[in-house]
């Protein structure tokens, strides 16, 4: 086991008493609690952590945070494996297992690194230009090959074993980031009494203070951070959320966040989620996301060992890890010089310091001289040398002569860019600040969002903290709290981080701009030459700024190169606009609880458990789970079950659960008038105790829904709707009442859930019912005729409703009971029907029987049909006004060539008919021009002993007897069918009357 | 004639198991009490009878009732405003149906009443982590300063519509939702409570 040779003896925010053993690419290492995987790898001397996307170049750690483009690894094993996680943000835990990705056979020896020798041919647009012909190769050859050669990590390929969840939060002020500005904003607003959420991406608060140290109000920075966190934690109205990334800003002052609740543990504690997605509504928000350091552009600037200077300081001071033994510091700003002290304190030798600026502050030069380093002002780095790690660097001085310095690390700083991604999520464009040499938040920020600290260009610590305080005060006041006046914060000004963007002056090798996508300076120039010269086009052409890091370290250099190629300034060319997410969000967090059986809610009828006991096969009907058929032993498919169920029903009695029908209680003096207006047929004349089939049209004259409505009392109706349209019809009726006719005396409420309802169909249905219905209710044929509707009692007093209505064409009843009695009632009905061989049937048999009777359902009431199309034209009253009447009278809707409902039966009785097939003339080719309609429903008819169907056929009403073809091009079948009356069975309806 | 009296089956029968669920260590952060014996009626003021109805409702619970989303209760009877001119009467306990029938009789002149109790599922959710558990699905702000005792709201969780009211400052939330989706809602609720430890009772 390794002894952490690069760990400093003292210091750091790590717990040396809590060692963490971990494995990377199969080798065992040890780090400490408080490490990231990145810092622990560095402590163990591992500097090669990944291979680049395209050229498979060896890559090391560029940064120490979320902006990391190189160190993408696969975390955990098996089903829990998570690809593309950044080693710089993975909190180390005991037992951690990780492996590098995008290499073969190993990280150290990657055969695909041969790609780099082909680099001259693989520039931007290579794939677009090369893999054009033949088109048949696109999907079968080119794409699989390219995907195999490129790409990042591997998905687990198995169900994620962990649990994720979602949560909502509300606050007065959301503070994004717990660096110096964020902490100060939260503290100030929290003291004023505002409800605060302080979200911090890191597991430790403090931001760059841990890398740069310093002194605030006479206290060491780390102690100041701890003091602020302690005070905030003691405030009941403040919620501190570490390990939480605010990844997006959305309309309505809503922020998307992911909390990595247990990502820092080997296994997720029982009942806890791995990650939690938050949807935070904040009246005000303070973005204190800080700033990101920019790489310098020179040849081979991607070699392992070359990292951002601020990251090097973080590894030194926060993690007590020495990233290198002898370094060159390359900078274009004062902040780069801050690494000198840090390096010397840790015993890191400084070979040279190169500053691209000619004029450098004398105090910095003096600091540099004390380090013994060679100093180059007005110089630049020409090239880095090395294989798996940088070994030397060539520096050109101000006069143009080159010097080579041996080193095992380069700490570079091209200045800082405010992290302003969230400010752009609702469309605000960043604007260029010439003085800061950076893009800053633009106009039209998301409502309620303010930006503070380094994220707004206040790079110096004092200014940063003061800005946080101001933002806290303003946000608190905006929420109605009395905030105290700003207090002076005493801290020395740290070095300014304003850097000069220096373009590469030579082409001594590949100069990487976007490390993650292997985009070089040459690619940007090529894009500009080939006309992709706007930032958005250049991004798509070169992939600059794409993938998991979203160009956090790449964009600004890319924009500078693009501007130069066009001979314009950065201000003139602008930049791309950031979109959510700020950092990658796992699908697990987005799905939360809603996966597998909880993907969406399911609705169960009161008799569901009974149906399960009967062995029902269920199917989804919207959210409902409905019994499709009840297989018996020996039945090999659903058709056999349907034949048995249908024959049993038509010969004796069958039972079907129809509880899913929509049921709407309609009461009031004007209920009848209302129904006359929403139905095309008349209901105000319906007698109490009677039911009537009703047809409802949309405003445009097409059929909306159908169902029976019963009159239970003079001012009391009960409407039923189809299962699928229950909510839509209720919404429609509410609209009609509230918006069209608010003066009507009318009260409506959905009672769909309150009543369980069972259809008893078949010649013995009345016999079964009579065994349940209390004696005082006469349900004989004479006393309770077809279309009767009555409130009754069953089983000794249970209130129930009985309707003599039929969808099957048989003598049939629907019995409704309060839902809690549904289970008992269905069992009682089955017991009562035992001597008649009562048979439960499901949707498939219901479908077969209704097709035999030519009854329409959702397949025909599909939004494209009129009442006339369905043979229901006679139902449309000419004596009253109703919704849809005027538009239904349009000539186009009365055209006789419209597709009309017909029956269809295969000429050859052994042939199967399938729904969806299109209808064409007997001798016409099956092409769109000959399309005359289609098969809407099909089923095997147990009574006719052949497949039959319903269809919509042009002028179908007049074509009974004609032979046409039903062509199903999707399933490659073709059947000759005879057009016929849609009522196949008992056309006179004699069985209805029992 | 019926052979025997029919018995009720509650929405969560076969799904809900009383006892401790989720994390077993320490005091339960959430307590769920499923109230099976409920009788519920939807009450809609007859045209021009809003004021008269409010008086009748106030007499029933011995406290003012407003045409607002608020819950007022006395003993086993509660009245909750669910939309303008509409209220929900809930009676809990063994005599709930009889109590509700008596209440309905008083309302006939001023209201149209529809019974709904069989299609609903009611649970009281309380405990120090009740707010945190409910926030895992409910979008409204449940902070005690925003959703005060007596407040009521129609909202949703896990894509399932529900009514929520705050009964007391323990806090105890009354949740009412459709019986058909009770299983799915229960799955979400118990999953959300799991990390806090959850005592379930009837």
Automatic annotation (TrEMBL), chain A:
Residues 900-986 form the Aminomethyltransferase C-terminal domain. The keyword Oxidoreductase applies. The keyword Oxidoreductase applies. Residues 608-880 form the GCVT N-terminal domain. One of its GO terms (biological process) is tetrahydrofolate metabolic process. One of its GO terms (molecular function) is sarcosine oxidase activity. Keywords: Oxidoreductase. Residues 511-592 form the SoxA A3 domain. InterPro entries: 2Fe-2S-bd_N, BFD-like_2Fe2S-bd_dom_sf, FAD/NAD-bd_sf, GcvT/YgfZ/DmdA, GcvT/YgfZ_C, GcvT_C, GCVT_N, Sarcosine_oxidase_asu. It comes from the Bacteria. Belongs to the GcvT family. This is Sarcosine oxidase subunit alpha. It comes from Candidatus Raskinella chloraquaticus. The lineage of its organism: Bacteria, Pseudomonadati, Pseudomonadota, Alphaproteobacteria, Hyphomicrobiales.
Automatic annotation (TrEMBL), chain B:
It comes from the Bacteria. This is Sarcosine oxidase subunit gamma. It comes from Candidatus Raskinella chloraquaticus.
């Amino acid at each position: 086991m390794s002894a952490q040779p690069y760990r400093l003896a003292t210091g750091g925010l790590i717990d040396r008493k809590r060692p963490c053993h971990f494995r990377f690419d199969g080798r065992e290492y040890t780090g400490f609690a408080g490490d990231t995987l990145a810092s622990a790898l560095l402590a163990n001397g591992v500097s090669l952590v990944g291979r680049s996307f395209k050229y498979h170049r060896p890559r090391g750690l560029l940064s120490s945070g979320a902006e990391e483009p190189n160190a993408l690894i696969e975390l955990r094993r098996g089903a829990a494996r998570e690809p593309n996680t950044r080693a710089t943000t993975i909190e180390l835990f005991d037992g951690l297992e990780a492996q590098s990705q995008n290499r073969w056979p190993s990280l150290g020896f990657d055969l695909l690194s041969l790609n780099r020798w082909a680099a001259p041919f693989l520039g931007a647009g290579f794939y677009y230009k090369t893999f054009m012909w033949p088109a048949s190769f696109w999907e079968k050859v080119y794409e699989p090959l390219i995907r195999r050669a490129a790409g990042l990590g591997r998905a687990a390929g198995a169900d994620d074993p962990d649990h994720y969840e979602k949560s909502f939060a509300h606050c007065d002020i959301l503070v994004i980031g717990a660096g110096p500005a964020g902490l100060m904003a939260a503290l100030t607003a929290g003291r004023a009494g505002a409800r605060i959420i302080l979200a911090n991406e890191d597991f430790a608060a403090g931001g760059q203070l841990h890398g740069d140290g310093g002194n605030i109000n006479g206290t060491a920075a780390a102690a100041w951070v701890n003091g602020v966190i302690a005070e905030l934690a003691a405030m009941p109205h403040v919620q501190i959320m570490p390990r939480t990334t605010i990844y997006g800003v959305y309309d309505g002052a809503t922020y998307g966040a992911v909390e990595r609740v247990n990502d820092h543990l080997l296994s997720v504690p029982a009942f806890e989620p791995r990650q939690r997605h938050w949807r935070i509504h904040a009246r005000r928000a303070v973005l204190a996301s800080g700033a990101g350091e920019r790489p310098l552009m020179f040849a081979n600037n991607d070699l392992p060992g070359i990292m951002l200077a601020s990251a090097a300081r973080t590894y030194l001071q926060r993690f007590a890890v020495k990233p290198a033994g002898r370094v060159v510091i390359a900078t274009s700003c004062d902040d780069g010089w801050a690494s000198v002290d840090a390096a010397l304190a840790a015993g890191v030798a400084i070979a040279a310091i190169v500053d691209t600026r000619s004029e450098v502050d004398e105090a910095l030069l003096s600091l540099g001289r004390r380090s013994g380093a060679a100093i180059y002002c007005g110089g630049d780095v020409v090239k880095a040398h090395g294989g798996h790690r940088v070994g030397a660097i060539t520096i050109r001085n101000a006069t143009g002569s080159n010097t080579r310095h041996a080193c095992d690390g380069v700490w570079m700083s091209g200045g800082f860019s405010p992290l302003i991604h969230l400010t752009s999520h609702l469309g605000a464009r960043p604007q260029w600040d010439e003085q800061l040499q950076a893009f800053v938040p633009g106009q039209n920020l998301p409502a309620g969002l303010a930006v503070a600290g380094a994220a707004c260009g206040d790079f110096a610590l004092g200014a940063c903290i003061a800005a946080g305080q101001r933002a806290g005060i303003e946000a608190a006041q905006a929420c109605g709290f009395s905030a105290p006046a700003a207090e002076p914060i005493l801290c020395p000004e740290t070095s300014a981080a304003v850097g000069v963007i220096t373009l590469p002056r030579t082409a001594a090798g590949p100069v990487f701009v976007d490390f993650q996508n292997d985009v070089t300076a040459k690619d940007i120039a090529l894009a500009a030459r080939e006309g992709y010269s706007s930032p958005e086009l250049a991004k798509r052409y070169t992939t600059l700024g794409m993938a998991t890091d979203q160009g956090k370290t790449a964009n600004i250099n890319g924009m500078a190169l693009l501007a130069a190629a066009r001979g314009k300034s950065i201000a003139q060319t602008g930049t791309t606009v950031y979109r959510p997410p700020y950092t990658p969000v796992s699908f697990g967090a987005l799905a939360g609880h809603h996966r597998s059986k909880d993907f969406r809610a399911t609705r169960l009828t009161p008799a569901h458990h009974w149906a399960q006991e009967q062995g029902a096969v269920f199917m989804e009907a919207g959210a409902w789970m409905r019994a499709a058929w009840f297989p018996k032993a020996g039945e090999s498919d659903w058709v056999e079950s349907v034949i048995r169920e249908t024959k049993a029903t038509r010969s004796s009695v069958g039972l079907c659960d129809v509880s899913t029908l929509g049921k709407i209680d309609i009461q009031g003096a004007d209920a009848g008038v209302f129904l006359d207006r929403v139905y095309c047929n008349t209901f105000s004349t319906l007698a109490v105790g009677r039911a009537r089939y009703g047809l409802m049209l949309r405003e445009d004259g097409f059929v909306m829904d159908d169902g029976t409505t019963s009159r239970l009392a003079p001012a009391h109706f009960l409407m039923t709707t189809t299962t699928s349209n229950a909510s839509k019809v209720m919404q429609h009726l509410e609209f009609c009442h509230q918006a069209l006719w608010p003066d009507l005396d009318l009260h409506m409420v959905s009672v769909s859930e309150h009543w369980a309802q069972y259809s008893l169909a078949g010649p013995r249905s009345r016999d079964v019912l009579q065994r349940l219905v209390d004696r005082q209710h006469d349900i004989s044929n004479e006393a309770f005729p077809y279309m009767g509707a009555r409130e009754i009692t069953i089983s000794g007093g249970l209130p129930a409703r009985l309707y003599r209505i039929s969808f099957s064409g048989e003598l049939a009843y629907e019995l409704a009971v309060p839902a809690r009695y549904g289970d008992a009632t269905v069992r009682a009905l089955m017991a009562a029907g035992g001597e008649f061989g009562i048979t439960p049937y499901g949707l498939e048999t219901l479908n077969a029987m209704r097709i035999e009777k030519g009854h329409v359902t959702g397949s025909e009431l599909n939004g494209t049909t009129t009442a006339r199309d369905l043979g229901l034209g006679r139902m449309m009253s000419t004596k009253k006004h109703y919704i849809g009447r005027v538009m239904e009278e349009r000539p186009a809707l009365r055209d006789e060539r419209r597709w009309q409902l017909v029956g269809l039966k295969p000429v050859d009785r052994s042939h199967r008919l399938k729904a969806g097939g299109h209808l064409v003339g007997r001798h016409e080719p099956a092409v769109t021009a000959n399309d005359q309609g289609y098969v809407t429903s099909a089923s095997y008819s147990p009574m006719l002993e052949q497949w039959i169907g319903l269809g919509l056929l042009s002028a179908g009403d007049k074509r009974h007897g004609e032979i046409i073809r039903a062509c199903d091009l999707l399933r490659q079948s073709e059947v000759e069918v005879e057009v016929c009356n849609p009522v196949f069975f008992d056309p006179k309806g004699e069985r209805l009357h029992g | 004639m019926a052979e025997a009296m029919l018995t009720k089956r509650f929405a969560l029968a076969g799904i809900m198991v009383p006892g401790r669920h989720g994390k077993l260590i320490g005091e339960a952060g959430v307590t769920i009490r499923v109230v099976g014996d409920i009788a519920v009626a939807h009450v809609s003021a007859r045209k021009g009878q809003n004021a008269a109805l409010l008086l009748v409702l106030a007499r029933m619970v011995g406290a003012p009732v407003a045409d607002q989303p608020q819950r007022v209760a006395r003993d086993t009877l509660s009245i909750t405003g669910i939309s303008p001119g509409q209220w929900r009467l809930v009676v809990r306990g063994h005599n709930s149906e009889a109590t509700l029938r008596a209440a309905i009789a008083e309302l006939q002149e001023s209201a149209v009443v529809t019974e709904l109790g069989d299609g609903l599922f009611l649970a009281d959710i309380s405990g120090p982590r009740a707010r945190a558990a409910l926030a895992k699905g409910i979008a409204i702000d449940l902070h005690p300063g925003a959703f005060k005792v007596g407040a009521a709201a129609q909202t949703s969780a896990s894509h399932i519509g529900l009514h929520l009211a705050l009964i007391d400052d323990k806090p105890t939330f009354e949740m009412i939702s459709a019986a058909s989706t009770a299983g799915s809602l229960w799955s979400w609720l118990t999953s959300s409570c799991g990390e806090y430890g959850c005592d379930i009772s009837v």
